[in-house]
Write a structure and sequence with these properties.
about 300 residues, alpha+beta, BirA Bifunctional Protein, domain 2, seven-stranded mixed β-sheet, three-stranded antiparallel β-sheet, 9 helices, 14 strands, about 30% helix, about 30% strand, globular
Length: about 300
């Protein structure tokens, strides 16, 4: 869900702000949410959970801040350093900096914390060691950050993500990934979208990025749900990702039989889904598909 070049869509941004979905904060890609956006996000998230239909999932939620060591161990910092948000603060025992902002900035040092670029990363270290025979199935919601500042509302720096994560043996994970890709498409249909599913790749960093992206598209390990948001017809609002042993090996996760486990996830960008609904169904929540529950009775939702 990271590949499109940012294109400023002033008309969509203005519409979302005029209708109190988005509240400007003065920096690109970061918005507060008014009542209609709060209602819409909750309704979309619940509709996805209901449609996913796996009641045995472990339900989790993580904050926007996570362990720097975990993200580094996962390989994200090496592959996507341009997207990472690192938290700096005054070191313990530091002298009092000068009052001006420049001196304060120079006194800051890296901490053990970073901003989470995806909601699933804190899940993997929790499953280090041996899995139960059925593996693990986790639903995780989180606040995320990616350093891609843009005036385009579908390119937020701060956003919410709902993910479903499967960790199991290769056969179980492969079957789940294939089923999850189809569920992702069906959820798009249920939300009333004109959408397609297509192979995709991540925005790798460095001289090998073209080779890595081509390999990812060719091996069928990433698919995106594409639909119309604003002026664009191909915005990714969800993705299905097969990691094979990339993460399980890094975190020492094994099956009940002691074999190396594999993992996969399906991730939904909640804000982008709301923006797609606004684009295709309007700002009056009563005109949205019937499966969105409370949102359908909220009207415009404006205060």
């Amino acid at each position: 869900m990271e590949n499109e070049a940012p294109i400023a869509d002033a008309s969509l941004r203005e519409q979302l702000c005029d209708e109190s979905f988005l509240l400007p904060t003065g920096v690109p890609g970061v918005f507060g949410y008014g009542r209609p956006m709060v209602l819409a996000l909750a309704a979309v998230r619940q509709a996805i959970v209901d449609a996913w239909g796996e009641p045995t999932m472990t339900v989790t939620e993580f904050p926007a801040v996570m362990s720097r060591a975990t993200l580094t161990q996962a390989g994200y910092v090496a592959s996507f350093p341009h997207l990472v948000g690192s938290i700096r603060a005054l070191p313990a025992g530091a002298g009092e900096p000068e009052a001006d902002g420049e001196a304060w900035e120079k006194a800051l040092a890296a901490t053990d914390y970073v901003l989470a670029p995806a909601s699933c990363y804190p899940v993997y270290p929790l499953h280090s060691g041996k899995l139960p025979a059925a593996g693990a199935l986790v639903q995780v919601t989180g606040n995320c950050f990616r350093h891609e500042p843009s005036e385009d509302p579908d390119r937020l720096v701060s956003f919410r993500q709902l993910e479903f994560v499967r960790i199991a043996d290769r056969d179980q994970t492969t079957s789940w990934f294939e089923q999850g890709r189809e569920k992702m498409r069906q959820i798009g249909v249920g939300l009333g979208f004109q959408a397609t599913v297509d192979s995709a790749s991540d925005p790798f960093f460095g001289p090998a990025r073209r080779i890595l992206s081509a390999m990812q598209k060719n091996d069928g390990s990433k698919f995106e749900l594409l639909t119309r948001v604003g002026k664009r017809d191909d915005v990714a609002v969800a993705s299905a990702n097969s990691h094979l042993t990339h993460l399980t090996r890094k975190f020492g996760i094994h099956t009940a039989d002691g074999e190396e486990a594999t993992s996969a996830c399906v991730a939904f960008g909640l804000e982008r889904l709301v923006f797609a609904l606004v684009t295709q169904h309007g700002t009056d929540l009563r005109d949205w598909p019937a499966g969105l529950g409370a949102a359908n009775t909220a009207g415009t939702g404006r205060p």
